[in-house]
Amino acid sequence: MPEAQTGLRVWIRGIVQGVGFRPFIYSLAVRHALTGWVRNTSSGVEIAITGPTAAIAQFVAAIPLELPPLARIDLLETRPSLPDDTQHFEILSSQVEPGQFMPISPDVGICPDCRRELLNPADRRYHYPFINCTHCGPRFSIIQDIPYDRSLTTMAGFPMCPRCQAEYNNPLDRRFHAQPTACAECGPQLSFIASGSTLAVREQALQQARVWLSAGKILAIKGLGGYLLACDATNPTAVAELRRRKNRGAKAFALMAFDLAAIQRYCEVSAAESDLLSAHASPIVLLTKRPATSLAAAVAPNQPTLGFMLPYTPLHLLLLEPTAGMPEVLVMTSGNQSEEPIAFRDEEAFERLGQIADAFLVHDRPIHMRVDDSVVKLVAERPYLFRRARGYAPNALLLFRSVPPILATGAELKNTFCLTRERYAFLSHHIGDLENYETLRSFEEGIAHYQRLFRVQPQRLACDLHPDYLATRYAHQQAAERGIPLMEIQHHHAHLAACLVDNHWDTTEPVIGLCYDGTGLGTDQAVWGGEVLLGGYLGYQRLAHLAYAPLPGGDAATRKPARMALAHLWQAGIEWEADLPPVAAFCAQDRTILRAQLERRIHTPQTSSMGRLFDAAAALLGVQQTASYEGQAAMELEALCAPDETGEYSFTLANGVFDPAPLWQALLDDWRSGTPLPRLAARFHNSVCGLNLQICQEVRQVYATQTVALSGGVWQNQYLLEHTLTRLKAAGFHVLWHHQVPTNDGGIALGQAMIAAFTD
Known about the structure:
Elements: E1 6-15, H1 21-31, E2 35-41, E3 44-51, H2 53-62, E4 72-81, E5 89-91, H3 112-118, H4 162-169, E6 190-194, E7 197-201, H5 202-214, E8 219-222, E9 227-232, H6 236-246, E10 254-257, H7 260-264, E11 267-268, H8 271-278, E12 284-289, E13 305-309, H9 314-319, E14 329-334, H10 346-353, E15 359-363, E16 375-379, E17 382-387, E18 397-408, E19 418-427, H11 437-453, E20 460-464, H12 470-482, E21 486-489, H13 491-502, E22 511-521, E23 527-535, E24 540-546, E25 549-550, H14 556-559, H15 561-572, H16 581-584, H17 588-600, E26 606-607, H18 610-620, H19 632-639, E27 652-654, E28 657-659, H20 661-672, H21 677-703, E29 707-711, H22 718-730, E30 734-736, H23 748-757
Parallel strand pairs: 2-5, 8-15, 10-13, 12-16, 18-20, 20-21, 22-29, 24-28, 29-30
Antiparallel strand pairs: 1-3, 1-4, 2-3, 6-7, 6-15, 8-9, 9-14, 10-14, 11-12, 12-13, 16-17, 18-19, 22-23, 23-24, 25-26, 27-28
Helix pairs in contact: 13-23, 15-18, 18-19, 20-21, 21-22
């Protein structure tokens, strides 16, 4: 007797479109001899299945265990249904559901299968720079709307040839419904342009670009989410010229090499770092530099690390394909002028990059949403994001509870925004520093795109307290236009909440927050940044903070660490003796003006910034007196730390204020006694680590909390983070720190959104 047939409906939400999920379900159903159908919807994937009860149970159990590489299931629901009378299993057309939404896959680096085909002379896609499949290629940067179908991407203008169409239609082919699929016959093509003229197309364009790079030229290359500027990283003249034209200052350039073996010739690469480099996201990974390499010194001045990535598109792979005379390592830095967003539209790129690049390697596949490269470092054996963008965004964070639709606009520097809906937080890709019109336009375009993709109509808004931030002004404007409530959230409270969300903290129980960064407006109108908070999503208390010091000239002090060193010495009552490095950084007249400014309190806002404390230490020890980019002085000070040094200095801790005055005197005494600079740098860092433990122990005695959250840009300092983690864990604390979103201001919007979600 034939086995009884039953029916089941399955609804799946998560990253299940554009990742080979339907062919996976098709193969799974065929394997279990089941009939029915699968289709994409605006909210995910829907499945109708008919067959024996046991076979259906095995089918459902296998779904989360055998997922395609890029798929992610956030929700799987089933409901019994009547058996279907279909005789086979099929894949139906997508169904549009008004108002529904779903997570979207980020852009993904080239997969091993496509790489093999790309470099195989016998393959029909040999050297085709836009090869992709359901396991790799563009996603977020080309999607215009959902559901994720070719007609709703920037590939809509490239009709498939018969062979590509056959692959696209075959459920057993890895290019089944791979929306960007194409070949040299029907897909996007390259052009090489110099002085406004097209010099070559297709393969010849690629080879021309390689010749120019080998000759020391600077190229603008249209990539996945925007333009990159490239040159030979071993050519000192080319690197110096790129730095000059781009107005880059001393900030390190990102690098790209053909494979891991090439990177290992320049950096120490652990097994975990190798995995990070080779991951689907293909981020820039900060690696320890080998002592002597052929790279130009100007690639990363005064830094012990290099930021390397592997080629994540077939075009980049072909540019770096090893041949005689071709550079082994290329600088691959964002295609922009300093402080501007990455260029992604062709005409915009020609205009903005024309004075930087000698030539352009472009293609005719439009980029819908610009996305910069992500930056990651391995810290305490865990990936630690410095910039969350390509490969990670717009991956949604799954929240521990459902929240209202909220738009949080983030901070001024390293801006991201965040939209929430139900149990999802859509933290945007890195936007940049909101200090000019171009970046503001990118911010506004990004918000509009995310709202459309994820069908979010915010019911409330959240922003930073600072009234002059462009993100704050935007939030106020939107609140007025939409007639919805706006919540202004203190900067460091948002940092604390972001760390809690990042760690799936699902309670309103308060924790100790060590929130250290460069700047954030406080409720007393001072510039905060060295904050010890007790709180969570519902609110916070400011239990302690770094002693206020004057910030002479306001933001000007962030660019001149010598100013902060002298301000801290003045605050501590320590004389500006002529032999001190920051004193020597000023002429006598400027020192007189600075002293008068401090004494008369002329444009000297008060700050408790931990970031400025590190700047002051770097200047006092002669490491750096003038910064060309944010955090430069502190980074160079960290790079000097002697790993075996255990000495440290003391702060005065009283009445909720930790005062560095005794630290400065002890540090100066050791400096004058000839203590080597690496030991002084380490002792300074150890002092802050010791302070962190002391504060947390005192708070625990009063409030009986064992959990500490570390958030804020200062925690990008690996020495500080790892040594603080060690001390706190040894003392029995449960320590939360970031792993899904940046600890810097790139995570602020997530914290703002969650605080707003908990506000009635």
